[in-house]
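Figure 3 (text version): structure tokens given as input.
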């Protein structure tokens, strides 16, 4: 078993990389196309890129991207739990735009891989290495703990199972179910239209402005960096779809959704609540996200982070996410 290092994803065959990602059941954030788009159009500052492939007798057993980041904190959470790492370079297993950390692998490789990551971190002059957004209790979480790496709670992400829309509604509380149905009726009366579009047909510049405006309400400035965000979404191609919610032609909500084999990711969104009529544009967007996930045959709805009260009320459950940082 040996670990190969590359400084660019373009040096690694996409079919070989993706075969491991698929076999491991890793999320869309590890697909070659997503990682390639992030290298070309990073959504946060990245000082250097690192890609690892673990092989044995010519067979690829594991892959992992990593990023040298000094300001790896667009939502502030990482430095809230690791204040000692503020302002110091860290080689991290992914960026904040991935909320479900994995080491896509088809064999036990973590000890060997961690050795390679530590060497690379030292080569880059990083003071830290580690992982963000590791789901507590999953295989990676247990393996990191077994390797002696302690975890600190970072945030939660929200997820739920799907079969049919009626089954989804039946699983909600009476009030939430009634609110969704009422919101659908009121939005229809208010002239709201909903359209699902491929990225090359979506109004990405308009959507970016709405996402930036929404993020700024929560002091998450910089999460959708200018024209880079629209170009990044375009580069994702068929990994992404866009939901546009309009009232009399004006964009009032939009979501950029990602898909992999079993999951539908409501990855990011923007909402304008200054609408005509007594309805919630976010409620319209969420309901259409559930319907679209079911139409696409996805069994898991990934609701992302934050907005806990709404997501719990609408049938999603928290997955505790930890950060695992270690000094080099």
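Below: residues designed for each position.
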């Amino acid at each position: 078993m040996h670990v190969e290092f590359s400084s660019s994803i373009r040096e690694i065959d996409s079919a070989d990389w993706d075969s491991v990602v698929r076999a491991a059941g890793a999320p869309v954030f590890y697909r070659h196309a997503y990682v390639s788009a992030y290298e070309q159009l990073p959504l946060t500052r990245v000082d250097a890129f690192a890609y690892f492939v673990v092989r044995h007798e010519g067979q690829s057993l594991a892959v992992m991207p990593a990023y040298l980041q000094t300001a790896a904190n667009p939502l502030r959470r990482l430095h809230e739990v690791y204040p000692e790492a503020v302002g110091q370079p860290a080689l991290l297993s992914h960026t904040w735009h991935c909320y479900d950390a994995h080491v896509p692998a088809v064999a036990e490789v973590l000890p060997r891989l961690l050795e390679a990551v530590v060497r690379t971190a030292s080569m880059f002059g990083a003071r830290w290495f580690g992982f963000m957004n590791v789901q507590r209790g999953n295989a990676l979480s247990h393996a990191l703990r077994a390797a002696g790496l302690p975890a600190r709670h970072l945030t939660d992400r929200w997820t739920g199972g799907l079969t049919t829309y009626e089954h989804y509604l039946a699983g909600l509380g009476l009030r939430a179910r009634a609110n969704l149905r009422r919101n659908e009726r009121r939005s229809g009366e208010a002239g709201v239209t909903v359209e699902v579009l491929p990225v090359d047909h979506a109004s990405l510049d308009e959507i970016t402005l709405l996402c930036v405006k929404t993020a700024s309400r929560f002091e998450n400035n910089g999460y959708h960096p200018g024209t880079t965000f629209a170009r990044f979404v375009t580069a994702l191609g068929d990994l992404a779809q866009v939901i546009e919610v309009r009232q009399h032609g004006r964009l009032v909500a939009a979501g950029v959704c990602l898909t992999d084999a079993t999951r539908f990711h409501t990855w990011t969104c923007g909402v304008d609540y200054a609408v005509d009529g007594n309805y919630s544009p976010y409620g319209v967007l969420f309901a259409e996200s559930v319907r679209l996930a079911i139409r696409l045959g996805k069994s898991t709805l990934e609701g992302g982070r934050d907005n806990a009260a709404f997501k719990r009320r609408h049938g999603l459950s928290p997955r505790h996410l930890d950060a695992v940082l270690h000094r080099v």
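The mean pLDDT is 93.
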